[in-house]
Amino acid sequence: MGGRLEGKVAVVTGGSRGIGRGIAAAFAAEGARVMITARDAERCEQTAKEIDGHVDFEAGHVARPDDMERVLSATLSRLGGLDVLVNNAATNPYAGPTIDVDRARWDKTLEVNLTAPMLWIQAAWRARMREAGGSVINISSVAGIRTNPILGTYGVTKAALVQLTRQLAAELAPSVRVNALAAGLVRTDFARILWEGERGDEVARAYPLQRLGEPADIAAAALYFADSAASGWVTGQVLVLDGGSTTAFDGRP
């Protein structure tokens, strides 16, 4: 028997590690043919070899249009289609009050976290999804739905990604569904500074579910959005995966 994504082809940006790797592994386990991309070709190759199932790779910088076109072309030629696009790659070069961010790091954060997903969706639409349909999954963050003393700039881009999700869900329906996942603190290298050691334990205790997220938590939700049999009547939605942090009591009477 085939898996839930048997016959589907998926592209996962930032797919060589962390949340992207978890999503790629979950998709492959359910029968999808998966193309992962990230800047480090060696890491991509290693990840593709380590994941069970049909996983290919094409290295590239997510914010470079030429690299994007090359990855999508390789996906169509080598894997035979494009049914699911996961915009997972992100950057966070600045931590501190948003009012103090410099222009260079502001521009870089916008470029990778917002402009790049838009361009990838446009390219996927034109290359395949306009005729064949599909599902787009944008990886946002709870930083995009609440304020934060040091992650405000990152959060602004993730909030904009949520609005982009809604806008394109309306524009690309009915053939393409566009949804987003707003992740809380997940144990990845990208977020290591936020969870390593006692700091992570303190954050976990503040979550109603008393633990931090794991890549598999996000991957399971991405699988739901990728599976048209499960989520075929769902588009323009944002699923918050945060251990309950956005519902936790704030300690005030």
Structure, described:
The protein has a single domain, classed as 3-Layer(aba) Sandwich (Rossmann fold). Helix 1 (18-29) crosses helix 8, helix 3 (65-79) runs parallel beside helix 4 and helix 4 packs parallel to helix 5. Helix 1 (18-29) links the parallel strand 1 and strand 2 (33-37). Helices cover 46% and strands 15% of the residues. The protein has a 7-stranded parallel beta sheet, with helices on both faces. It is globular, with a radius of gyration of 18 Å. With 253 residues, the protein is of the alpha/beta class.
Q: Using only CA atoms, what is the Rg?
A: 18 Å
Number of helices: 9
Helix-and-strand structural type: alpha/beta
Q: Give the overall pLDDT as a whole number.
A: 94
Order of secondary-structure elements? EHEHEHEHEHEHHHHE
CATH superfamily: NAD(P)-binding Rossmann-like Domain
Strand order of the largest sheet: 3-2-1-4-5-6-7
CATH class: Alpha Beta
Which spans have pLDDT < 50 for at least 5 consecutive residues?
none
- Through-space gap between termini: 55 Å
Largest sheet: 7 strands, parallel
Q: How many extended strands?
A: 7
Tally of separate domains: 1
* CATH-derived architecture: 3-Layer(aba) Sandwich
Kindly estimate the percentage of residues that lie in beta strands according to DSSP: 5-15%
What CATH calls the topology is: Rossmann fold
What overall geometry do the principal axes of the alpha carbons give?
A: globular
Percentage of residues assigned to helices: 40-55%
